Amino acid sequence: xxxxxxxxxxxxxxxxxxxxxxxxxxxxxxxxxxxxxxxxxxxxxxxxxxxxxxxxxxxxxxxxxxxxxxxxxxxxxxxxxxxxxxxxxxxxxxxxxxxxxxxxxxxxxxxxxxxxxxxxxxxxxxxxxxxxxxxxxxxxxxxxxxxxxxxxxxxxxxxx
Length: 160
Ligand SMILES: [Fe+2]
Ligand SMILES: [Fe+2]
What we know:
Elements: H1 6-27, H2 32-65, H3 71-95, H4 102-130, H5 135-144
Helix pairs in contact: 1-2, 1-4, 2-3, 3-4
Residues 50, 53, 76, 80, 115, 119 line the site of one fe (ii) ion (FE2).
């Protein structure tokens, strides 16, 4: 992956996911199959992003700060649960190829925007600051070692 910093890498992933979501929204009333392709990539990418954070980044921060079950990562984990709830609701609509999903999209974006901003402005820089020599490579390796089954989702298993 060759990441320059946690903040750079994860911010770029937020941007990539935002772009996929906008594509889904732009296409959903014109070409649903094409919109769905973007949604699949978004769903898988966001699920992977959350796994990277919860399995690799947050434990590292919690270990360094001694803040387990409290502090910023506890808040971020809680927000991930809310994000996943909205994501599931939207996924149901996509499964039914129902473009009337503005409410689900807005609910998701509302939480996600604020969540990403807090990570980019506060949490990622704090993690970057705490990293010692060689630890960024360890983060990359740990991320790469996560098996795809952890974030592959049913959208990939059903056709269309
Ligand atoms: Fe997050
Ligand atoms: Fe994130």
